[in-house]
Amino acid sequence: MQPEPETVLIVEDDAFISMDAAESVARAGANVVTTETVSDALDCLEANRITAAILDFQVLDGNVAPVVERLKRAGIPYRVVSGSPVHEITARGIPADRIVPKPADYLKVMVQLVKDRPWSALRANH
């Protein structure tokens, strides 16, 4: 029996960045779910088996700190990819080692997520 594929949540309100991130995630062998808002991301976490997440810090309806808290509680690895100043992000309780500055290489972000989940089915070498 084949293991269920990984599903990565991408929270990004810029369509071009979201498409770039989704393409990288798909190339790494994962399913992709994208949202543009904190509200939709929280709903998505309730409705789907999310195994990792890539989040912009500031999206249409605010910052993603509530999403990060939910991910932390569930033990789901994540990275915040943002153009916001690092001190703004860390002030919301997000560790600096989980922050990647924009512009980002989303394939490298996927490699970081795979390192957080060594048992992952993601193909970090692609």
Topology, pairings included?
Elements: E1 7-11, H1 15-27, E2 31-35, H2 38-47, E3 52-55, E4 58-59, E5 62-63, H3 65-74, E6 78-82, H4 86-90, E7 99-101, H5 106-116
Parallel strand pairs: 1-2, 1-3, 3-6, 6-7
Antiparallel strand pairs: 4-5
Modified residues (4-aspartylphosphate): 56
Domain Response regulatory: 7-117
GO molecular function: DNA binding
Structure in a nutshell:
The protein is α/β, with parallel strands linked by helices. It is 39% helix and 21% strand.
Describe, in plain words, how this protein is organized in 3D.
It is a single chain. With 126 residues, this protein is α/β, with parallel strands linked by helices. The longest helix is centred in the first third of the chain and has 13 residues, at 15-27. Helices cover 39% and strands 21% of the residues. The radius of gyration is 13 Å and the shape is globular. β6 (78-82), α4 (86-90) and β7 (99-101) form a beta-alpha-beta unit. The protein has a single domain (7-114), classed as 3-Layer(aba) Sandwich (Rossmann fold). GO terms for molecular function: DNA binding. Residues 7-117 form the Response regulatory domain. InterPro entries: CheY-like_superfamily (IPR011006), Sig_transdc_resp-reg_receiver (IPR001789). The modification 4-aspartylphosphate is found at residue 56.
